[in-house]
């Protein structure tokens, strides 16, 4: 079964994304911060990581680099309240970024991206 990791501090968005992922027949691990990752999670090869980039104490690009370094995955989707074009361009310049979405989220678009990898 395909696996998705959702990292999102906002509990409501976390639950919405978790449900969307499960409805598309993916196994889903939903956490509110990287601190919630266990050793098993760090060894799982996720098909997608869907994450925010705004976490206290870490710069957005630094957070993305950290995620890409410590968690094996094929694609990274960024969903965030930070809609600044400069950050978006810098994130897209990184390897393995499947999408960047600012809040309010377009769930149909997000669903379409994850469905292409079924």
Give your account of this protein's structure.
39% of the residues lie in helices and 25% in strands. With 118 residues, the chain is an alpha/beta fold. It has a 5-stranded parallel sheet, with helices on both faces. Strand 3 (46-51), helix 3 and strand 4 (73-80) form a beta-alpha-beta unit. The N and C termini lie close together (10 Å).
In terms of structural class, how would the helical and strand content be classed? alpha/beta
Low-confidence stretches: none
Our Rg estimate from Cα atoms comes to: 13 Å
Strand content: 25-35%
Number of strands: 5
Mean pLDDT: 92
Major sheet details: 5 strands, parallel
What separation lies between the terminal Cα atoms? 10 Å
């Amino acid at each position: 079964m395909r696996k998705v990791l959702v990292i999102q501090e906002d509990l409501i968005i976390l639950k919405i994304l978790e449900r969307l992922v499960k409805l598309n027949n993916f196994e889903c691990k939903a956490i509110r911060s990287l601190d919630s990752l266990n050793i098993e999670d760090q060894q799982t090869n996720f098909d997608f990581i869907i994450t925010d980039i705004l976490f206290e104490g870490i710069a957005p690009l630094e957070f993305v680099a950290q995620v890409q370094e410590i968690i094996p995955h094929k694609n990274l989707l960024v969903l965030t309240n930070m809609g600044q074009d400069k950050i978006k361009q810098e994130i897209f310049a990184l390897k393995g970024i499947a999408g960047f979405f600012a809040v309010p989220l377009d769930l149909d678009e997000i669903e379409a991206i994850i469905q292409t990898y079924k």
